[in-house]
Amino acid sequence: MNNINNNTLKIVDLNHWFGHGEMKRHVLQSISMEIFPGEVVLLTGPSGCGKTTLLTLIGALRKVQNGELKVFGKQLYGASRKTRQKLRKNIGMIFQGHNLLRCLTAEQNVQMGADLLNGFSYKARRAQSREWLRAVGLEDHMSKLPHDLSGGQKQRVAIARALAARPKLLLADEPTSALDSSTGREIVDLLKKLALEQSCSVLMVTHDPRILDVADRLLRMEDGQLLPSV
Amino acid sequence: MKLKNFFEKRKIPLAWLLLTRQPLRILVAIAGIAFAGILMFMQLGFRDGLFDASVTVHKLFNADLVLISPRSKSSISMSGFPRRRLIQAMAHKDVIGTTAVNWNFLLWRNPENLSTRSILALGFEPSKPLLIDSDFQIKAETLKNKGRVLFDDLSRDEFGPISSWFKNGRIVETEVGGKRVRVSGIVSLGPSFGADGNLITSRETYLELSPGNPQGSIEIGLVRLKKGADTAKVVRSLDLSLPSDVKVMSLNSFIDFEKNYWKSSTSIGFIFTLGAAMGFIVGCVIVYQILYSDVSDHLPEYATLMAMGYNLRSLLGVVAREGFILSIMGYIPAYISGQALYSLVRSSTKLPVEMSFSRALIIFCLILFMCMGSALAAMKKLADADPAEIF
Question: Quick check: B8 and A121 CB within 8 A?
Fold first, then answer.
């Protein structure tokens, strides 16, 4: 597990700033962390502490300004747009809102994830999408539009969509914030179970104290700095 | 094999679903594109129809070459030249026959309400061929009697119910140029821009109806050549051998000469082309509006797709495909309505407005260009989709 070359994520001394001149804010201050394959890591902290920024940097959605950030061994500092876009295919993302495509059915939404895989026929990708929907317990809702699904169901579709692309790292940004407590619990348990089956690492940002126990490791962040682990 | 491969590789048809899951939006888009298409079909159809109408008679002439006066500018202002030139043209070894044609406007009296109207009168020698229609020579026999005319049943109704009276066996007599004539047959030529109606008569009658016309002067000389003769070569050699008071041209260039007059010396071409351009612009604005608001509405979804690992190019492809689908879906109703409107125009104005393949193709290309151009402009909005903003 502690093999350095094998880690999913390795961050060394990462800094990030927002704004220019007088307004420049140092939102991430020399962050260093690692995530190993199959690990579930929770990141907590007050809002505005830079959690989401860190997540977008790891998700290759932003340019790294300073420091070292390696995902699957690929250096993201100075990486081109193309490299980042390709890397994103291997990172699953689950958002605060479900962010499903409104015009697609649950099944088609999941297939948008499966379509990112190369070398599978349309039929195979379709079958996989159905399999994932079954895994998240939505076999009876495959042809429903997001509009007709409940919040928990939408988040399940989002999980199925993220996993359908077979990511090696799953980033989740407060996936339970829009859900009631029991649904939130179910979703997180499901997320952990399915991720582990795929030996996919999970980095989850959350405020929700009820789900902290799913974590293998808990990271706390405050004012752009990681606090020493408890 | 390739097709199967393509089929296997296909993905969720996002562009199609985006459009079809918003029925109101696609309906507006289709209506807009179809409207633009219909406008273009009508304007260009009218334009070409009017140009074609200006040569309805020209196209029917049984001739390989045509002699006209260099002072003639168009069918509505034909000048005379000496008939002798035709006889001189006979000297050329490739020429096998000629027909002298008088061509001018005369006043026709409507036998029903006695109002007068200007009609195009053609005078020729009935024993010589004039039109390519084979029935025509039989009808032309009747013109050997003095005071007989053949009336064009495609002439506008204002000339009177001549053909229906004639077909009912009535003797139709009226005045042309103040002289009494009798209709001895019906032909089908078609009205043109300059002429609302046509009549054909013998030169003898013609000269009587228009007494001011000098005996030896004609407006058009038709020349027929031997089979296999090189038209261009004969045109050149006749042009050299004949005096400069005639111009020699092939029948096709005579037709183009007439069309060119209407194209260049009148504002018809400009007006109708402008009308078509307006349709094009209206269509562009509508499609752009639709696609732009579609992209704006789905911006978070596009951003999500980018976060998932879809590259910008594939998303641009979605917008382009939306444009392509819209162009097809808008073109079909435009084409069908165009056909229907053309037949309406044909029956009510007798203008030869036809759905030509080239026009159908040109308008399809214009609509495609309109949709793809608008899609291209709407794509700029996609650049605003920042996946980092959706967290």
Answer: yes
